Amino acid sequence: MVGVRHTVAAALVALAPLGAQAQEVTFKLVSAFPENSNYVQHLEAWIGNVNSAGKGLLQIEFIGGPKAIPTFEVGKAVSNGVVQMAMSTGAFYTNLMPEADALKLAQVTAAEQRKNGAYEYINKVWREKAKLVYLARMVEHTPFHLYLTKKIDKPDLTGLKIRVTPVYRDFFQALHATVVQTPPGEVYTALERGTVDGYGWPIHGIFDLKWNELTKYRVDPGFYNAEVSIIVSLDAYKKLSAKQREYLEQQGIALESLNDRWKRYNAEETARQAKSGIQTITFDAATAKKYYDMAYTVGWAAMIKAAPDTGPQLKKLLSK
Ligand code: 173
User: Fold this and answer.
1) Contact 126/132 with Cβ under 8 angstroms?
2) Is any atom of ligand 1 closer than 6 Å to the C-beta of 228?
3) What SS3 class is residue 165?
4) Cβ(226) to ligand 1 under 6 A?
């Protein structure tokens, strides 16, 4: 009799997480970008919303930026479940799979990606290859630029040392730059010491870490589409109840739906750069087009070479 009661009790305990009484779960989240960046401000506002509406269901605990986990190790930490979530860009976790860096090449919006099968395909690849759930894109509508401390008059970076991440590496190398990879947190020092003569970065955010103090020129046009997203450990995600998963996905969509904000912010940041004395370097129309097209040609060629099995499908789904 005692044995039977024991078995019933054990069965009930085992079933509990599946029922409506699932316990509140707290996910630790790390940022691959420094804490004093606009991205982290935007992130913290979102976490506030998630936590206030998610009482008793799901909470996110922000544990910090690259001081907690170095930028280029964040992807691995989420994949392994050391933390359950991160805000990162794909370029920071190409050590898990080359595909991570493909999202910068998107010419269709995140909203469109949810409709045309791209979001689904990204999730298939992210889950199978990196044990990551790709929850939501929180930065788009944002070109990258080349910023310089020295003037150029044509798109030839011969003799220049440029700070990169995987985002820019192949393109700047194709323009004959010597490339040096650093996380965002090391750009200021690299500029200050003259280790680099310039860097790749989106149109926004150069004031966050004071790089404006050391930047003389921005090269136009911009290229690609800066991507910052929320990724989740697949193992941790699988342990959530259906209700918790649904809540997290809903909150991801809510975050993604704010992305038009970047259009306004980018216009403000462009004006702020001009006001602070950063000069723009432009090329004639034909050269500018060649520069811009080359970014995509080189970017997709490198992606398809590194990921021949998935690169072509990513290209099809993300290109216009
Ligand atoms: O560090 C970087 O320059 C980088 O790769 C990146 C990607 C997306 C947004 C901001 C920076």
Assistant:
1) yes
2) yes
3) coil
4) yes
The CB of 184 under 6 Å from ligand 1? The reply is yes
SS3 percent helix, strand, coil of the chain, rounded to 5, is 50, 20, 30
Distance 183 CA to ligand 1 centre (A): 9
**What residue's CA is closest to ligand 1, atom 1?**
184
202 lines ligand 1 (CB under 6 A): yes
The tokens for 78 are 């989420």
Supply the pTM of this predicted model: 0.93
Per-residue pLDDT of the chain (320 residues; tens, 9 = 90+): 344 444 444 444 444 444 445 699 999 999 999 999 999 999 999 999 999 999 999 999 999 999 999 999 999 999 999 999 999 999 999 999 999 999 999 999 999 999 999 999 999 999 999 999 999 999 999 999 999 999 999 999 999 999 999 999 999 999 999 999 999 999 999 999 999 999 999 999 999 999 999 999 999 999 999 999 999 999 999 999 999 999 999 999 999 999 999 999 999 999 999 999 999 999 999 999 999 999 999 999 999 999 999 999 999 999 99
To which residue do tokens 């080349």 refer?
146
Q: For residue 226, which atom of ligand 1 is closest to its CA?
A: 8
Residue ID of nearest Cα to ligand 1 atom 3 = 201
Strand 25-31 to 58-64 pairing: parallel
**Cα–chain center distance at 137:** 8
Residues of the chain within CATH 3.40.190.170 domain(s) are 2-142+225-263, 144-223+278-310
Give me the CATH topology for the region 144-223+278-310.
D-Maltodextrin-Binding Protein; domain 2 (3.40.190)
Question: Superfamily assignment of 2-142+225-263 in CATH?
Answer: Bacterial extracellular solute-binding protein, family 7 (3.40.190.170)
Distance 65 CA to ligand 1 centre (A): 14
